[in-house]
Structure formats: C-alpha cells, structure tokens
Design a protein that fits this description.
- By secondary structure, the chain is α/β, with parallel strands linked by helices.
- The chain is built from 13 helices and 15 strands.
- The strands form 4 sheets. A 7-stranded mixed beta sheet has the order 2-10-9-6-5-3-4, sandwiched between helices. It has a 3-stranded antiparallel beta sheet with strand order 8-7-12, with no helix packed on it.
- Helix 6 links the parallel strand 5 and strand 6.
- Helix 1 runs antiparallel to helix 8, helix 3 packs parallel to helix 4 and helix 9 packs parallel to helix 13.
- The longest helix has 19 residues.
- The radius of gyration is 21 Å and the shape is globular.
- The two termini are about 30 Å apart.
- Bound molecules: pyridoxal-5'-phosphate.
- Pyridoxal-5'-phosphate (PLP) binds next to helix 3 and helix 4.
C-alpha cells in the first residue's frame, strides 16, 4: 500500500542535533523564563527576519493578543473572515468587535476597496492577514491606516521570511505576528513572534508575556503568561539552520503543482506575485464545479480514497462559527464565501517528493476529466 500523504509535515532536526542543542540546559538548569537559548533565538530570528524589534512568545495566538492589548485598542477592528480561528478569536478575546471585510478574488487577502466603507467613528484598527504566502495590498493599507488614524496589525502567520518589493514583510504596519507552530514553514514546536519598528512598544510587549512583570517588584499593567521555554527555543535554533533549504524544497513542490495543473479546466490557482519573495507556505486551488464538473468536496474525497489528505483551509469562514451567532452584525462577504466553499489546500512540505506531487495531480486531473 502507498504511504499516507498529509497536507503538511513538521520540519525537524535530526535527533542527535536536537540532543546536542539541549545538553547545556541540563548544566545551567535554566528551562524557561528568558534563558540563554531564548535570547540566542530572539537575536538570530531578528537578523533572519530583518526586524528592528522582535519578541518571542509561547505561540502565535498569544502574540497576536499581546499586540492588540498593548496597542490599547477599543471598539471596532476591521478584519477578514477568511483566516484561521485564531485571528478572530484574538480580537474577540481582547473585548473588541470584529467587522468582517471581504477579500479580493486574486490572492484572497483583505479587499482594500471594500474596506473604507466599513470604517466608522468606532474603528481603531485593521487586522489584515497575509494568506498562504501572498502579501496584502500593503501600500493601500498603509495609506488608509494613516488617513483614518488606525493601527495596522498583520497576521503574518503564513509569511515567515517573505519579502515584498525587497522589504521584509514584518516591517509592514505597526506590528506583525508570526506563528512558529509545528505546521508552519519554520517552527519552534509551538511558538510565535512579534516584529515591530516602534521601540516604544518594546517594554509593554515584552512585559505582557510575563504577567506584566518588568524589572521591579511593582506591576503597572496586566499581562499573561506567554513565555517561550528553552526546549522550544532550542528547536528553533536547530530549525533556523535549515529553513532556507526547506523553502527551496517547498518552491520545487509548488512550481511542480503550478506546472501540472495550469491548464486544467475549472481550476483557479492564485498567480505568483512578481514583487514578492514567497515562502511557499501553502498551495491552495479553487474548483469551479460549473467548469470542472467537480466540486472541491468531490475532489477532496477522490484524494482521500488514495490516502491523500488535503485540507479545506480556510473553511468555514470564521464569521460562520456558531459561537458568533447573533453577536455581531455580519457584513456580506460574498467573495470570501465563494472561496471558502471551493478552496482546497494541497499537500506541501519540505519532505514531499515530486513523484508524489505528480500522483496527486494525476488524481485531481482524473477526477476532473471524468466529467462529461
Ligand atoms: C497558525 C495561525 C495562527 C495561530 O498561530 P499559533 O502559533 O498556532 O497560535 C493565527 N493565524 C493564522 C492565519 C494561522 O495560520
């Protein structure tokens, strides 16, 4: 039987490399609370991501909540529902009201032309999501944020190491959040990082991850516990050594999918962005049943029959979660709705052989071809 293929696989160092990296932890007994591994990873990542300021967190979600808290927002935050549960939950957990803006149909990021209409006197921020490795229309977002005096936060969970017009993606907006979760391009098992240019945020964002404690005994602001421990940091130090190589392998997989699927009827593949250096986080395609004869769910079922596990990512829209029923006025987001119903994220990771990519494409093409 052929091996099962999952949508992703975590990138890990060899067992020996990791053991070597953690040996010193047994000598210094410093297992968490800003130990030497933590500080090395913080410095190495800041260099790698070209960050003026970078802080580590125990995961990406709490990093995002830290940003929303410390920027001291209130009222309404404009965001998109085409994202992972975390983005919307961070907004809601911080006592803010999410206002759902539609996405643009090319790369599925926030539609800056629909955004302005949603701004009210209660709007204090925009939380925009870079999707799959595609970058938002950052120029227009910066203009809008400036015109209306809004904070601009990026959920950059998918765009570790990406650049746009030669600029590191983390330097866009007021704060960018990177997730370093096991499923992401670069991982610290669980982990997250905030990147920002304004050094004035450093004390607040740093203290927030450790109960608001900063140096002295008194606590001036409430925080949470979101510290990255030494074992996570050690994993990150090891994985950072291979990340460029992993991204190259991802590019090969992604290029192969593009090549194989480009002329298949009824499949939409977001085009590469010429100004972006991508990290090839995810390879997502949309199926138009009217043209291809097969729905996303039918193609997904065909893949599952061959033990290939793609993912409906993102589906459903976060605005559709029953927990939010009756809680917020839900704007219509027709493009987001259509994309969520038709999108399928295909297996893509550093360890996926091109022969498996070919097999996946064959199954998709067969599935679409049987249409008459
Ligand atoms: C993974 C992810 C998060 C959450 O990050 P964690 O590190 O898992 O907490 C947030 N937003 C998006 C878009 C993600 O993909």
């Amino acid at each position: 039987m052929k091996q099962k293929i999952y949508v992703t696989e975590p990138s890990m160092p060899s067992y020996e490399e990791y053991c070597n990296e953690i040996r010193s932890i047994w000598e210094n007994k410093h297992i968490t609370n800003f130990g030497p591994k933590h500080d090395v990873l913080e410095a190495n990542l800041a260099t790698y991501l070209g960050a003026d300021n970078l802080l580590l967190y125990t995961n990406g979600h709490l990093a995002l909540e830290a940003a929303l808290r410390v920027l001291d927002l209130n009222g309404e935050v404009i965001t998109t529902p085409f994202t992972f549960a975390s983005t919307t939950q961070a907004i809601v957990n911080c006592g803010l009201t999410p206002i759902f803006c539609d996405i643009e149909p090319e790369h599925f990021t926030i539609d800056t032309y629909k955004l302005e209409k949603l701004i009210t006197k209660n709007t204090t921020a925009i939380v925009a999501v870079h999707v799959y490795g595609y970058i938002c229309d950052y120029k227009r977002l910066a203009e809008i944020a400036k015109t209306y005096n809004l904070k601009l936060i990026y959920d950059a969970a998918h765009t570790f190491g990406c650049k746009v017009d030669g600029t590191d993606v983390g330097s866009l907006g007021d704060v960018s959040m990177f997730s370093l979760h096991a499923t992401k391009v670069f991982n610290t098992i669980e982990g997250g990082a905030l990147v920002f240019s304004n050094s004035g945020l450093l004390t607040g964002l740093s203290a927030y991850r450790d109960f608001g404690i900063f140096g002295k005994e008194d606590i001036e602001n409430i925080g949470i516990n979101a510290k990255m421990n030494e074992f996570q940091a050690a994993m990150g130090i090891c994985n950072l050594r291979r990340v460029d190589d992993d991204i190259k392998k991802r590019k090969m997989v992604s290029d192969r999918y593009r090549q194989q699927l480009k002329d298949v009827r009824g499949i939409y593949i977001p085009p590469e962005q010429p100004d972006v250096k991508s990290n090839y986080s995810y390879f997502a395609v949309c199926f138009n049943k009217d043209k291809s004869g097969k729905s996303r769910d039918e193609v997904n079922d065909a893949l599952m029959k061959h033990d290939i596990y793609a993912r409906k990512y993102f589906y459903p829209l976060t605005s559709e979660y029953s927990v939010y029923n009756g809680k917020f006025t839900k704007q219509e987001t027709p493009v987001a709705k259509t994309v969520a119903n038709n999108v399928l994220t295909l297996p893509l990771h550093h360890n996926l052989g091109l022969e498996n990519v070919d097999r996946i494409c064959e199954i998709i093409m067969d599935s679409v071809r049987t249409y008459t």
